[in-house]
Amino acid sequence: MIPFNNFKRHYLNLKPGIDNAVKEVMESGWFILGEKGVEFENAFSTFCGVKYGIGVASGTNALQLALLACGVEEGDEVITVANTAIPTVSAITSAQANPVLIDIAPTTYTMDPGEIEKVITNKTKVIMPVHLYGQCADMEPILEVARKCDLKIIEDCAQAHGAVYRGKKAGSMGDAAAFSFYPTKNLGAFGDAGMVVTDNPEIGEKVKLLRNYGQKQRYHHIIKGTNSRLDEIQAAILLVKLKYLDKWNERRREIAEKYTHNFKDLDIICPLEAKNRKHVYHLYVIRVNDRDNFQRKLKLSGVETLIHYPIPIHLQDAYNELRYASVRLRNTEIVSKEIVSLPIYPELTDEEINIIINSVIDSIN
Predict the structure, then answer these.
(1) Residue 212 forms beta bridges with which residues?
(2) Which of 220, 227, 264 is nearest to 361 (CA)?
(3) Angle 116-119-123 from CA coordinates, rounded to 5°
(4) Which residues pair with 346 in a beta bridge?
(5) 71, exposed or middle or buried, with CB in 10 Å at 0-12, 13-18, 19+?
(6) Percent above pLDDT 90 for the chain
């Protein structure tokens, strides 16, 4: 079986560097808010092309704290999409704001900028575009609406480490951005981890306070905060891995190119890399007509697949209130019934890639 991800292979390829980094932290005797955390914050914010990076406990926390740092209060509205992972919306509700869901573009599966102004009210505070599957949303028109309507933009970059839009890295275009370093990500920790990046010193400083109980200095709390800190072991591991991120992203793009070339004559819709964007293929998501049968055949061929995401957020039981509050999300609902994610990670061998390609061809024909 070719698994959807292979974390053991990933670790073994990096074992000496990872083991040494963990050993250094253990021997230092300092595990929270130490030198490795600061070093990684500086390195990753530089990678993104922004001034400030604040490490937190998870990507979900990064979104939530970014919202609070941008002034979101109870009852405010945040515009985002339903074709995303649950954490995008759970972060909004955790900040006591109300998610307002709009439809996606049918080719990129990211936020349709033309739908934003239709749902803006006097309660709207933030637009939260999701850079989905490894490709940035169409930021130029989104930024135009934000400027016109005096709204903040928080980029959900959980799947877009290193993605580029018109020469700018994901995370460098909004007022703030949130990254996840969950193990599956293009840059993944060996546990939960996240970061808020921003060019705004006030937002950065507020996230720093929020992540550590609102504490300006020890036992001196100036705002109400929480506990959401990136630990030293994960920061040290991420520092080792960051050096390889560009190389890994290029390998993902190489695999994606092979897939797309071999699938071009099949009854499959392959991912589109939109003009002026660099896709880093966190996921390679195709669309097929008979998804259940397609996945069953691939499983019999020894290829594991997943669906990202089978149930849009407004149709989830946990967010039932959004089912009727949302306008009809036609593209979102169509896409959710057809999408399938194929294995795509740097450690895939050429032989495994050929097996996946041939299995897909056999499953469609």
Answers:
(1) 227
(2) 264
(3) 115
(4) none
(5) middle
(6) 97
